[in-house]
Amino acid sequence: MACPVQFLCRGLRTVGLVLLYYVFSIGITFYNKWLMKGFHYPLFMTLVHVVMIFSLSAVTRWLLQCWTGKPRVVLSWTLYFRKVAPTALATALDIGLSNWSLLFITISLYTMTKSTAVLFILFFSLLFKLEEPNPFLILVVPLISGGLFMFTFESTQFNLEGFVMVLVASFIGGIRWTLTQVLMQKAELGLHNPIDAMYHLQPLMFLGLLPLFLFNEGLSLSTSEKLFRVSELAPLLYSLSVLSVGGILAFGLGFSEFLLVSRTSSLTLSISGIFKEICTLLLAAWLMGDKMSALNWLGFVVCLSGISLHVGLKAYYSKNKAPSLRPLSSKSPELELPLLRHGAERGEDSAADEEEEQEIVLH
Description:
This protein is mostly helical. It has one domain (15-216, 235-357). Helices cover 73% and strands 0% of the residues. It has helices at 4-38, 42-68, 77-101, 107-115, 117-127, 137-152, 160-184, 194-222, 233-263, 266-287, 294-320, 351-357. The longest helix is centred in the first third of the chain and has 35 residues, at 4-38. It is globular and about 60 Å long. The two termini are 32 Å apart. Residues 344-363 are annotated as: Disordered. It is a multi-pass membrane protein. This is Sugar phosphate transporter domain-containing protein. Its main location: membrane.
């Protein structure tokens, strides 16, 4: 039995990881909205973020290789295009459309609509037989969809174009996270480590977004005085530095999510995500002046109730049934990395908790 000091240290570590996740997640949402007010090139911004994430992932891989003395995984071209390409394309479209929608809608509507991605994740998980259906889904689906309808009904700041964009992004996000779960749990690929996964995803994400960027923003950006037609060096350096900040936030968000899962559990990330939505909406109303009626707030509560029910049911079924997905091997060398190693520190935890920690969360 663990002593009180160990429980305290574990609790403080969990709180620290959750706060780190909040900083990057909420920070990048408000950063993107702030940037879109004066820089109307969301696809170009996303491409810059992709390049930054790839660069930071490559540096981190090199540091980990120096630390462990083990070579990092590098997929063959055949496996790369067959296995990684679908996930990369779905991820690129999800992130690109999400950032694009911030040109038109408020943070409140964006946050609310993106939270419904759990519906699409659930749909594709059932379609690919990653989860088993249960009778309580007849409550989860109406609660989430009904809450979204109430939130958008007669909203004074509703924009149809932006709403459709973020809703399509949520749909693609369901595909994205389902494919990500399959990708990272295939032992033969060796992409268990989030750094390796991010490193392999970024190049194909860039190629997937590039045609859409050239078609929608290429000509306009090439004649913009913010970058290519700049007359002074200072504004150019300012634009590049501001865009780089977003890339750092995006890298930190991806890594903090997986770090939180690996050191705690997928349930912790799911519950943290619910409170994050509440914090985001409150900050949007306070800092950005987003206006929401009583009906909108009621819709948000109804939607969160559906999401909370889904999270609770998933936790219940995962503890009472064998996992539907093949867990990662505890002997995998990727789990011996300093950033992901938790078996020795958590040897006193139950076997159920260990299985849950190896789950890749569909968030």
